[in-house]
Design brief:
- The protein folds into two domains: 188 residues, no CATH class; 27 residues.
- It is mainly alpha-helical and 228 residues long.
- The chain contains ten helices and no strands.
- 66% of the residues lie in helices and 0% in strands.
- This is DoxX-like protein.
- Keywords: Membrane, Transmembrane, Transmembrane helix.
């Protein structure tokens, strides 16, 4: 069956069963990790605020199967905010290094973090990786907020988050502390459904739909005039 390319999410609709299976697997793994840390290691739930804030909302997407457009559209925000908040941090917009709640505070500290995260990469590539990651996060964050090329932005976000989570795991960091694989799975699932409410994609599509009938009517009238 050929997919309708005008339908939001259609380009990646074929992978929806796989995407949602991965989302459920990531949700279960994240829930097990958080429960173990709370009850066995006696860590307060407040210490897990990041995955609760940015990753756990994708449970709604899994439970609804992406069938509710409003919920799917709303879940663009956790991804976008996570990206743009991280970018603002490394650009010093949230305060200098050492400020409570600030991870880096400037780009130099972010480059150092990138080096630790990608210790398996040649040192000469680290600044470029830091810049590319920042460009990617900024681009995807803006695209998700405004709903621009949503399926592409969502699957691009999934790829970036997957690479980030894998680098964290290889480097010995706990990606569960941030729910990165869960966010990656959520972004992948989001790319397969209609999340276009209040988006530029939806606005431009409606403009095209309104314009095309008028164009056809004018063409028909012109043809009739020629025949007369």
């Amino acid at each position: 069956m050929r997919l309708n390319s005008n339908k939001p999410g259609a380009p990646f609709a074929r992978i929806k069963p796989i995407a949602f299976a991965l989302l459920w697997a990531a949700l279960i793994a994240q829930a097990i990790w958080m429960t173990a840390h709370h009850f066995r290691l006696h860590e307060p739930w407040s210490s897990m605020s990041y995955p609760l804030t940015y990753a756990a909302p994708f449970l709604l997407l899994a439970l609804t199967g992406g069938r509710i457009r409003g919920i799917a559209s709303l879940l663009r925000l956790p991804l976008a905010v996570a990206f743009l908040d991280a970018v603002a941090d490394r650009l010093g917009l949230l305060g200098p290094h050492g400020t409570p709640g600030v991870a880096w505070g400037d780009f130099a500290h972010f480059i150092s973090y990138t080096a630790r995260l990608n210790a398996f990469m040649p040192a000469a590539t680290i600044p470029a990786l830091a810049v590319l990651a920042t460009i990617g996060e900024t681009t995807f964050g803006i695209a998700l907020i405004f709903g621009i090329y949503l399926p592409v932005a969502a699957i691009g976000s999934a790829a970036l988050l997957f690479l980030f989570a894998t680098a964290m795991t290889i480097a010995g960091f706990s990606q569960f502390s941030y729910g990165v694989y869960l966010m990656a799975a959520g972004a992948l699932a989001l790319s397969t459904v209609d999340a276009s409410l209040l988006s530029m994609d939806s606005f431009l599509q409606s403009r095209r739909n309104n314009f095309e009938p008028d164009s056809h009517h004018r063409a028909d009238r012109d043809t009739d005039t020629v025949h007369l």
